[in-house]
Amino acid sequence: MRLSSRFVSLSALALLAPAFAACSAFSEGGGDTTSGNGVSVAAAFYPLAWVVEEVAEGTGTEVELLTSPGAEPHDLELTVKQTAVVVDADLVLYESGFQPAVDDTVAQNAEGATLDAAGIVDLIPVEESAEEHEEHADEEGHDHDHDHGGLDPHFWQDPLRMAALADAVAGELGALDEENADTYDENAAALRTDLEALDAEYAAGLTDCERDTIVVSHDAFGYLEKYGVHLASIVGLSPDAEPTGAVLGELQELIGEEGITTVFSEPLEPALGEGLATDLGLTNGTLDPIEGLSDATSGEDYLSLMTSNLAAIQTANGCR
Length: 320
Hints:
Rossmann fold, globular
């Protein structure tokens, strides 16, 4: 099993969670999705909604977020009211393969324009050893880790891919609302500047480090490998999966070999990281996958959370 890079869990994720209302940081899902004559957008989860909010600033566009704060976006099931939001939206922004319930609702019910982030951002393959591939092939239905099709959906960990999405969103909104097309383009350009600066901060901040491997709860940080970071995850793409004894043994060996001092937990699912850190006497840090906001991060946004993640990795890996 290749633990100095990313690996996929042997466990498949069932869709367990109940339906959720929309995030309070945006418009409440299920209500009137229009604001005067403004464009209405249904965004499947937080990073997508954040991009729309930034690109549409000052235009009267209303954004409906389908995944509520504190909810696990992988598990989203839509209520009747949320389905109505999708039906009524002028634009639905989603990522195919990440939230199957949203995929189904968009395919069956969306009446307005749709934009699939997966077709914009050039998703990277999930790395998987030959041994893991054989084990997964034996699983019933070949449906593991949400059947992402071998692609890592967590593209928002790469600021430049977020910039590409912002450009595409500006184009879609401009086509729907020609009066504000220049504003959408200008906002997207300004956002690209911020995201390129963030990308440069990551590249510079992770260049000179004592260690280059981080141990994380679930495999949500693969896009950071562009900065020379290697990842070992306790489970794969699904944060609800259970680790195997073999994986935990391999992790313990890797931690000892590479002098790793920190195991990272996630705000919504802290138990895996906390447990391993406690068992091995290591520091337990927090690395936010930024799949959504929580009560603890309600005052943050994508940029501030990415900056906090960078600082956490630098501290854990002794970066200078």
